[in-house]
Known about the structure:
Shape: globular
Strand order of the largest sheet: 1-2
Structural class: mainly alpha
Amino acid sequence: MGELFEGVTIWTIIDKIVAYLFIIVLFWGAKNKFGKKDEFNEDFLSLDAMKSIRGIAAIGVILHHISQEYFFQEEGVLSLFVNAGAYFVAIFFFCSGYGLLKSFDSKPNYLKGFIKKRIVKAIVVPFYVNVLIYGLFQFIVKIPLDKTQWVTNLLGITMMNRFAWFPIVLAILYLLFYLCFRFIKNRYVSFGIILVFIIGMGVLFCFEGHYAWWAGPNNWWIDEHYWETQAKWWMDEQIFWFSGEWWANSAPAFLAGLIFANFEKPIVAFFKKKYILKFHVLLVVTVLLYGLNAYGQNKFGYWTEFAGTGPEIGDKLATYFLQIPLLFLFPFTVFMLMMKFYVNNPVTQFFGKYSLHTYLMNLAAITLLRFIEVPDVVVCVGDVKNNLLIYAVSVIILTVLLGVGEQNLTERIQKLLFVKKQPVVFDTSWSLIDDSDTKHMACVKDETTSKSKEKTEAKAETKSPPKTETKSEVKAAPKAASKPASSGKKKSSGNKKNGKEK
């Protein structure tokens, strides 16, 4: 589309409008304590605050996936989100790590039934429901798959939905948490093991790369003839686990969440004294680490396969180790900001509630509506660029509809597979409950409060003996409480040379 002014097109304007709307979401319903000395958002780790920040991250991930589409990168639309995926995913990992340790510290026998409830029910079942949905989708639209690929995809060994890597990594980290905190009494040793394991996942990707580079002649992946005539399906990108830096580069935030949960009280107390100075120091360090990350991306990079000199494992390793300090610290910086400023509005709450399933169904929406974006698929009037805005809006709407539908389906299947037992009363005084506990714990708190009030009233009645009423003495009947108190209540086919930071 032609320029409206020098260097300005309709798409540069739309790009800025989208960024502006996203910023509005970041300020709508803000709880701001800046400028108020010694005042803080004491609920910055509450369920609503956590759900809201996850909602922002979910919106960011959806926009990131759309920005990876070829024509969007060609026009520079949604450029703000092209390399932002890793930061949004880091928020999810941080919240997961924090929630696990807070649950472990506050609930008796938390690890009893952990694998069944927290891994199989909450992660594995949604993953395989999503696999079946995508399998049905690919069968209906007749996407050609090798028979062996059908089997491995349905088993989850290879990727039916290439966006579904997050629940796999999350399940692995949950299992690691269980093993460490079940069998190791020294918490610092557990943290060390988790750190080594997370770094090991990143190193595994660096050696594996984006393709099965070891399965053919040198640089076979940049030879179109070899790719089309001799390469097997399993040699393609995003087929096996850890075939992409996004599988590992955000995972250090999981450990950051664990550590923050362990030292929450002293950390919060430390920042409350001279908050502005300490937060700005933290912010400067974060910016410096961002610069270190940018240096690694520009100097080395993850997509070294396209340099034509082989897989270049060393460059990938250098990029990874220059990036992980930033993704470890970034979510911590976000939550320290929330001590003074965070938002809570209907949009962030909605996406926070459906974050995992909108994420999982995003690829289906992107694929189903791609005919709007790509001119060769459908006859359309005018330039394809005119369709990008319609495509982006349509993808967001369809992602939401599919995500809500999948979550409702998954919940029904979970109820069929797992019989709900009588709830056990736990202490709920701390500030965050992981997603699988939220509804259960809220109900328990209501029931506990009600029972406590009943016992208090019973004791009050039995302490003093009943009096005999006379004509001159009238006894006032005590008023009963009207109702008990209630508690309030988780990549794409973009331009490969630009890099994919999921």
